């Protein structure tokens, strides 16, 4: 969290620096959990002294970056109408927020190394809850399979989101192809199954 | 790779140490990419000197552990008959090798930090190829959807395998529930889709 609160133009400058630092931290930490404060300062285009002025510890910076990302995700998610047909709602949710959700997953891993588990759970509970609620509603309405727990289905979506973000970074898929691919396989995986007697 | 090759009983002892070290390295590095040589020696129940005697560098140890894991995976995979009905073959493949494949994914990330990309690709090409070939055959026979590239479908399975292994470690799912869950959502995601006009 910012340590100093100057007034007027200086406050606006400081706010701008903080934004740049947090964006750089999200980008660096999503790619490499162990990104250093120096690497983040370089990516943000600010000096180390400026960065340490706002975030005296790496731990504080990681926590602020995670909170910033989850807040942005919450803004995007809360702007969506997820009350319509569940499959269509899920498709919209994936399309509008796949990258944010994927980055949150990567950021969470970075955060797990420095923050206490309770704090991480607290920060992450909002967006996760929203996805889970949509799945539960879809199951209740018969739009999604209910032979598997909603928590597991939500978890599988997270794994695919996170892994696909890595595939986009490695060039195996483009950022334009990713959300449609994720939606297609997720909706197929979530679809009510004709029979449960498929076990060997 | 072992540096010394003593004879007789000492050779058997050395081989046993190497096995213990490699198993410990796989376990530690799958959980934590940055596991140190000291942590691995502790987990293996051997002294640091013994470990360094077999693996003078952490890099060499990581490479040997990855090769050992992939070799074990190759043994399991080559023992399977994957020439039958594609969905059933995929189910068997997941059931018999999900943990090995998941560990390989985690190990690969550890390896990516220390080994050159070409060497990793070389070590990993075998098992990956087998999964991909099964998907391609399933697509050709109409058992799996062909509206998405086989490489992407294989990749999504890898993400779910890796993520589910983490869920098992965190206690969200048991090791007994995991392979059946993975098979159920993967087979649903891979199933031929009734219509491609599902886009928004």
Automatic annotation (TrEMBL), chains A, B:
Domain HTH tetR-type: 15-73
InterPro entries hit by this protein: Homeodomain-like_sf, HTH-type_TetR-like_transc_reg, HTH_TetR, Tet_transcr_reg_TetR-rel_C_sf
Metal-binding recorded as keyword: no
Keyword annotations from UniProtKB, A to Z: DNA-binding, Transcription, Transcription regulation
Full protein name: TetR/AcrR family transcriptional regulator
Pfam families: TetR_N (PF00440)
Organism expressing this protein natively: Streptomyces goshikiensis
Top-rank taxon, per record: Bacteria
Chain residues forming the annotated DNA-binding region: 36-55
